[in-house]
Amino acid sequence: MSISNPVQLWSVRKTYSTSAGTVVALDDVTLEFPSGSFTAVMGPSGSGKSTLLQCAAGLDRPTAGRVVLAGTDLTGKSETALTLLRRERVGFVFQSFNLVSALTAEQNVALPLRLAGKKPGKDHVHAALTAVGLGERGKHRPGELSGGQQQRVAIARALVGEPDVLFADEPTGALDTATSREVLALLRSLVDERGLTVVMVTHDPVAASYARNVVFLADGRIVGELADPTAEAVAARMTGLEAEAVAARAGSAPVEEAPSC
After folding, report:
1. Terminal alpha carbon distance of the chain
2. What is the pTM of this model?
3. Closest to 127 in 3D by CA, of 102, 162, 92
4. Does domain 7-241 have CATH number 3.40.50.300?
5. What does the pLDDT look like over 210-227, one tens digit per residue?
């Protein structure tokens, strides 16, 4: 069954207690990621973008508010239930490829299905590798593949379970410029041609330009969105947000008294 909005956040708030006091990572965030969308999440360091991804994916629990993932309200769900939901309905791609070096590409892709107690079909695994352009490299181990090819295997592994949404956290952070563009183009093609829903956290304006929409965060709040982004427009917006963040930190710094004469 197709879900029109695989990821929904309603008035989500996330706080952490530290020795210095309470830190607000997300502050009343309401956001939806429609089916077939490709959204980049950006913001200055400490803006809450990684926390947003973790809460949206059911990897962390919000302090307040609701998260609905793949049609399931996560409120009150046990850790076991969350693990099963992520395994069956969600795909993940990280900066680190997290491939098992002793396994072939085919075996790495099949691993999530085996962990779920399912017998992976050879054709199904091959189809996932073919979708990322590695249909002929299934017998190769990670050490025999380039960084870009390893990330493609990681994407195939995320796709093999036919997830409702794929979460990508800095997926090109460990890749060179040319390889990064190839991986980003692949993600965009999976959205355009297969209707995959992708939520990507990135700090790179060029990476964000491959998305259909960019959501900007600052101090845990949504401060803007940009449809059909260009790298230049994203960079300009980020420069402004970072300048505001620096000014805010400077304004909150204690002012030293001038020495008395």
Report:
1. 77
2. 0.90
3. 162
4. yes
5. 999 999 999 999 999 999
Q: What are phi and psi of 145, to 5 degrees?
A: -120, 150
Please choose, from the candidates 115, 149, 121, the residue with its C-alpha nearest in 3D space to the C-alpha of residue 135.
Answer: 149
Q: Which two tokens stand for residue 173?
A: 């952070």
Amino acid in position 181: R
What is the C-alpha separation between 91 and 167, in angstroms, rounded?
6
Rg (CA), the chain: 20
Instruction: Give tens-digit pLDDT for 109-129.
Output: 999 999 888 888 899 999 999
Q: Which has the closest alpha carbon to 169: 98, 59, 94, 99?
A: 94
Residues 68-101 pLDDT 10s: 999 999 999 999 999 999 999 999 999 999 999 9
- Tell me the sheet residues that pair with 15: 24
- Of the candidates 150, 146, 147, 187, the residue with the CA atom closest to the CA atom of residue 166: 187
Are 49 and 42 a contacting pair, CB within 8 Å?
Answer: yes
- Backbone torsions φ then ψ of 225, nearest 5 degrees: -135, 155
